[in-house]
Fold these 2 entries.
Entry 1:
Amino acid sequence: MTTPLPQTVIDMVPVSAEIALLVGTCAILLIDMFLSQGKRSVTYALSLLTLLVCAALSYHDFVAGTTVYTFNGMFVSDPMSNLLKLFTYLAVGLTLVYSRQYADDRGMLSGNLGGEFYVLALFATLGQMVMISGSNFLSVYLGVELMSLSLYALVAIRRDNHKATEAAMKYFILGALASGFLLYGISMLYGATGTLDIAHVATAVAAGTIKPTILVFGLVFLVAGLAFKLGAVPFHMWVPDVYEGSPTAVTLLLGGAPKIATFAICIRLLVEGLLPMAVDWQQMLMVLAVMSLAIGNLTAIAQTNLKRMLAYSTIAQMGFVLLGLLAGVAGTTDRTGAAAAYSAAMYYTITYVLTTIGSFGVLMLLSRAGFEAENLADFKGLSKRNGWFAAVMSILLFSLAGVPPMMGFAAKFSVLTAVLGTGQIWLTVVAVMFSLIGAFYYLRVVKMMWFDEPTDTAPIVVKGDMSFALSLNGVAILALGLLPGPLLAACLKAITLTLNT
């Protein structure tokens, strides 16, 4: 007679947002099959409604401020995950609003399965949510793969466009290589510790009974996989080519919300799981950060394609995120300083995502059927064509450059303060110097918009929802720069409650 297996009670409440998104996405997929091409607005509205429902559920959990594990500790709902999910919904929602007309003009919403753009975007969001809440190497990896497979398909969604097809092939091949790095690193750590649970890995590593060589070997592959997802040097090869080759709507899905999810797994794996090895991964992140700042900013100067320029800008911006993460290593002796550094990195990631989404939104605003506004020359004289959106783009570029009083200045200041607090003055000086270099190529675009004569005189036609969202995006960047306190406090609270649990 066999002994029955013990029954495990699984609490479904912490995964209510994920369940709502999965059910909503499947329903949208089915409904869309019965819609004609002219009814894609229904799919669009249902997608935004689904994100809104998920936001309400995550906000309720964030306000509660509790930490709950489920699925045998593989999934966690805590303040950090819920706050990051809220900004993930916001990023994806804005992306869908900005992309609607652009995708329609390029036939991405036509055919029997024209709603696949929205469905794949929602499935990618589900993968990001699993990444953010993963407390086990297995669940984190499943989230990474769900997000990646959805994004591979999105990059190749314009099957008749050779640039998009080439970008999809590059992204798929290099993405598979990065996933291999990540999985190999996880397998090494599993072999050394005998567990996939992140908390148990931390306990096993802290015990000091495992041969350090095996741990460091696994850590190197783990950091390499994370660096690829962030687009940090020297794992940045895919970023400019994929950003340029993808439809701008898909580029936005690649460069926005996924960075939030990648930041979350950096905290989960490096801080929660491998903090006893902080000295090792701090040195790795230091090299990655300095190289990203240098190559990202210097190479961006030579770009004439704005999408490639913003791609190299992304590489440089991720250098600042890595600076915040490595500054948190002070947490081995000063938990308050560590929480401040990690929250600065979180704030910087959110700032980057909100600003980048707006920047690519303006690119899609200026694009139209048969014309892609992606060269610097396309922005000449924008102030004479539409002064308001020229002002919005200027705010976004000033924020990316770190010019006060924009949100980007507060983000850079908080990260640099955290790095300076660790006593690494040279690293702070290097970051400031490369930021000054980076300011050149941002301000060059501002100069073109306000002082050059326009080369394109076609009227700019904007739908009401996009006009409202893009205007709100620009105003929010300015407002959060003038009053950064509440969001910084929310990030600090989320990090503190999460790491002290």
Entry 2:
Amino acid sequence: MKILLTGANGYIGMRLIPFLLEAGHELVCAVRDKNRLAVNLRTRSKISIVEIDFLEEPNPDLLPQDIDAAYYLIHSMTSSTVDFDEKEKRAAENFNIYLSKTRCEQVIYLSGIVNDEKLSKHLTSRKQVEDTLYQGNFNLTVLRAAIIVGSGSSSFEIIRDLCEKLPLMITPKWVKTRCQPIAIRNVIQYLTGVLGNKSCYNNSFDIGGPDVLTYKQMMLLYSKIRGLSLSILDVPVMSPKLSSYWLYFVTSTSYKLALNLVDSMRVEVITCDTRLQEMLHIKPISYTDAIKLAFEKIEQNQVVSSWKDSLVSGRFRKDLNHYIKVPEYGCLKDRQSIKLKNPEQALENIWSIGGKRGWYYANTLWKIRGFLDKLWGGVGLRRGRTHSNELYEGDSLDFWRVLLADKEERRLLLFAEMRVPGEAWLDWEIDDDNILHQTATFRPRGLWGRLYWFSMLPFHYFIFGGMIRNIARYEPKTTVISNS
């Protein structure tokens, strides 16, 4: 079967790819930027990639006409707090136009549970997308889920951030709202189980785990599993906006996502039927088991995908290829070079930078900079990194974004997503003579940009110099060749 996978570089899309390939399907991945599809070369050789932005004017000729089925995994909740519902409706309408030129028989859409009488803007938008897709000339299967629990999912990472960092929480009343979490493994089973299943055509199903829990119970259970001490005091006076700021500063979520999540957390998301579970003979995984399975993946460094690697977790929505050519003129630079005697180890050190490993020098200063970035509305350092020693173009890396990660060419290029009065790049490259070149480039925006750079020069002298020396720390003696 030839399958179109939209949102292929998203959290769910990345999880689906190996299952669909293993089942022998031919896969066409639709992404806005093919360079951001973070799959290895072996997987990339097995799939076709098309670049489509479903918010732009449709060009149906971009898709092959022999598509048999499609997954619709597009959402815009994290891109805006005002008009994301309009964007989601437009994307669904354009999707219908694209598929009108194909032979597609079935579309599978992962939505949210919409059984409450009063829905949030997010859930109302999900239902609107469902209604729009039903107008397409294909058979629609809708899977409605509550929060998804798995390593790298936004819900799991937010709960993890809260419980791991705060022994005492003063929380708003929405922590008493009930929901029915579902394990990511069950979600994948449902998504693959309905594929080509004609009894699921033109039907909508609720999917959920076996437990109905309040958000407070979910956090307490998480803390119990992790052996943490947690006390929660809920108060009725915290406004949605204040709750959103609270989530934003404590967790790795963006403010836009936090605001939309808080709005949805006021709505109960509980399944009304178990028809699909019985049809597909799926055994639901409990919330506690889902948490344990997530940590097995984390501890084995086998996290397939993370919501943080999506562009919506950062500051920039445009094609990052625009920034991949580092400018030479009108820029301020710090250049460091060092001779390596163990270039293989140095390369591994470069590929392991950030996250728990840190930045090899003055990590406290990096943390302070991340805290200040959060205060100024930036992403801070809390995104970390998805893998401990693997990097792909488009990955988030603390408050940087990976533009280029080429181990064969021995080069890593990062672009800053922190709040700065200008644009910043950080570049490492090992040449044929085994000399490591480290270049920090800053293109200032006006007078404030130049003042920012020169005020940071004393810190740059120690931080960048210490960083390159410690990247090559396995060398008994190192000599700095240049520093300008």
